[in-house]
Specification:
Layout: E1 35-46, E2 52-53, E3 59-73, E4 81-84, E5 89-96, E6 99-100, E7 103-106, E8 109-112, E9 135-147, E10 157-162, E11 168-173, E12 195-203, E13 205-206, E14 216-217, E15 219-222, E16 225-232, E17 235-242, E18 253-256, E19 259-266, E20 272-279, H1 284-290, H2 293-304, E21 315-319, E22 324-325, E23 331-333, H3 346-353, E24 361-363, H4 370-388, H5 392-402, H6 425-441, H7 444-458, E25 461-463, H8 465-476, H9 480-489, E26 495-503, E27 509-516, E28 527-528, E29 534-535, E30 543-548, H10 556-568, E31 577-580
Parallel strand pairs: 1-12, 20-21, 21-23, 24-25, 26-31
Antiparallel strand pairs: 1-3, 2-3, 3-9, 4-8, 5-6, 5-9, 7-8, 10-11, 11-18, 12-17, 13-14, 15-18, 16-17, 19-20, 22-23, 26-27, 27-30, 28-29
The protein binds zinc ion (ZN).
The site of zinc ion has 6 residues, from helix 4.
């Protein structure tokens, strides 16, 4: 999602019966990772789609679940298994390798005592290849309250919406609160399972909240491919299976009235693909024409970055009751089939861009999330450039974006502490870093190649800030590494100080000196002005340039004004602040 704070705010702290529920405020990813998830199998049941009200006035649905996790030890020896599960839940039983085991559920974590034979050779596992060691299966049966999102997708959780005819349209979005807010899992960005299956049973028919229409048959759409669908006695059970590694916050489901249509698309290699869309029946016609832009978008992204990584699971866009979310292979879309003033649907383009930056190239820690949002926001401008065949509109788009940069807190936070971005800077400022580098190197093909190879190098991996910065430094020049780190770790923009120091006795030429403010130590950013001057400031050390008045003779005041405009215009191309000092003339 984009452009709002993530509030990890849905965390219920109610004491439950039996084992205590609640939230552990200690960092989760600081700890070593003794286990990684190989796969999850979720089987869940909803008795009703009508919301109930909790004692504190929050809406929820009762939810029963059984999760089978196949885990692999990352080191030899038997480490206890700890699964994350936060919220208003009760854990009824835990089995390891099909045997009941004792466990403790407190502070949002299920601590599981491993039996002596807890870790098996893979050959003992059903369907195992017999080669991997340290595999075990953990099954958790739990139930409780699936709480409604306060303001999805920013304050997230279960979305209890309705479509335009008043029928239920449910969704799940948990980027902030994490998968741990609705199912027990190893909720750690470093551990992406290779497969996840999601089976949900729910009342098959939903009633409209407006008018007297007949109840409607409701479908369930999730990530991956549909694997099962039965309707027995008013209960529908639908299963979807994800067959490619996935960030857990991307696992989702949608329940509602849906029709499917397909947009044919030939990829850059000429392979025929299907772009799938699931929308409310009454929106089918406008959705069909509106979503035609997805072909150009997909083509642009594949040509610029590399192949879409999740064809095995498909590319789907699912109409939602919230603005959008980058759910892998099941993008949530709720922007009303509207284009912006630039003539494209930024929710479609942004959330789909996350399939490359976020879902395929994933941050290994939330403190690296500028990689997801900065590069995806950049793709909005890249899409404009693909569409137009030149960068004029794309540059104007970036300049407009600049106003939204806050410069209040650094983009990067501490590792291992479930860092939540302070503000929108990981989007706009993140994108602007790369736009600035492009203008600095002045070599569009080199910059584009570096962007593309960043994707190709890190596709389907979880990476750190250092890896991404190193890649750009290798591509554009080693001194840019310090520049990127500076931007990421400072709230402010580097300040370019300047002053006019003399004129040469005529009315067309002035001498100007400039430098980085001392705080900008480590910044390397050669820049070009509109009149063709090349500046390569040094921190705290003056440099001089001779500035020629463009066109005609000016008074000193006019020259100062024109020079001020030229220096200020640098902020339309570079992530800097410009300050004229009081000295000089
Ligand atoms: Zn986003």
């Amino acid at each position: 999602m984009r452009r709002k704070l993530w509030f990890v705010g849905l965390l219920a702290l109610l004491g439950g019966t039996g084992r205590v529920n609640g939230r552990d405020s200690s960092p989760a990813v600081d700890r070593p990772l003794p286990w990684r998830a190989v796969s999850y199998q979720l089987e869940c049941h909803l008795d009703t789609l009508g919301a109930l009200m909790s004692a504190d006035g929050r809406r929820y649905l009762p939810w029963k679940g059984r999760v089978l996790a196949v885990l692999q030890a990352t080191k030899t020896g038997t480490s206890p298994v700890e699964l994350d599960l936060e919220g208003r839940w009760q854990v009824h039983s835990v089995q390891v390798n099909s045997r009941d085991v004792s466990f403790e559920y407190r502070k949002g974590r299920i601590r599981i005592r491993m039996p002596d034979s807890g870790i098996k050779e893979d050959s003992e596992m059903k369907g195992g290849s017999g080669t991997d060691r340290g595999i075990c299966s953990v099954q958790v049966v739990y139930s409780g309250h699936l709480m409604e999102a306060a303001k999805p997708p920013w304050q997230d959780g279960l979305v209890l919406g309705t479509d335009s005819l008043g029928y239920p349209r449910l969704g799940m979005t948990c980027q902030g609160s994490g998968a741990r807010s609705w199912w027990p899992c190893l909720d750690d960005a470093r551990s992406e399972p290779e497969q996840v299956s999601l089976r949900i049973s729910y009342p098959a028919y939903g009633a409209s909240q407006v008018g007297h229409r007949q109840p409607a048959l409701l479908d369930m759409i999730a990530n991956g491919r549909r694997e099962g669908d039965t309707l027995v006695g008013g209960t529908r059970t639908v299963t979807w299976r994800i067959r490619q590694p996935i960030n857990l916050y991307n696992v989702t489901f949608n329940i509602g009235r849906y029709v499917r249509f397909v947009q044919p698309y030939a990829d850059p290699q000429g392979v025929e693909r299907e772009l799938e869309f699931f929308v409310s029946p009454e929106d089918l016609n406008k959705a069909r024409s509106h979503m035609a832009q997805s072909v150009d978008m997909m083509s642009c992204y594949e040509k610029t970055l590399g192949p879409y990584a999740f064809w095995k699971d498909g590319y789907k866009v699912i109409q939602s009751s919230y603005l959008g979310m980058e759910h892998q292979s099941a993008v949530a879309y709720g922007n009303g089939f509207r284009n912006n003033e630039w003539g494209f649907d930024f929710i479609l383009v942004h959330e789909s861009g996350h399939e490359w930056w976020g879902n395929s190239v994933s941050a290994s820690d939330p403190s690296d999330w500028w990689i997801h949002e900065g590069l995806t926001t950049l793709m909005e401008a890249v899409f404009l450039e693909c569409r137009d065949g030149n960068r004029k509109q794309a540059d104007a788009y970036m300049v407009r974006m600049r106003r939204k940069i806050q410069n209040q807190k650094p983009m990067q936070g501490p590792r291992g502490r479930r860092f939540s971005a302070h503000d929108v800077d990981i989007y706009y400022k993140g994108a602007w870093m790369f736009y600035s580098l492009r203008n600095s190197v002045g070599n569009d093909s080199l910059w584009s190649a570096t962007l593309g190879s960043a994707y190709q190098k890190f596709a389907l991996q979880t990476i750190s800030t250092e890896q991404m910065v190193d890649h750009w430094a290798q591509g554009l020049g080693p001194r840019y590494a310090g520049t990127l780190h500076w931007w990421l770790n400072h709230a402010e923009c580097p300040v370019l100080e300047w002053e006019m120091v003399s004129n040469k006795g005529d009315t067309t030429t002035s001498q100007v000196r400039y430098r980085w403010a001392r705080t900008a130590r480590g910044i390397y950013l050669p820049m070009g002005t509109a009149s063709g001057q090349c500046l390569n400031p040094q921190a705290g050390r003056w440099q001089t340039m001779v500035w020629n008045t463009p066109g005609h003779a000016l008074t000193q005041a006019e020259r100062l004004w024109a020079l001020q405009a030229e220096m200020t215009n640098l902020t339309k191309c570079y992530l800097i602040r410009v300050q004229r000092l009081k000295g000089g003339l």
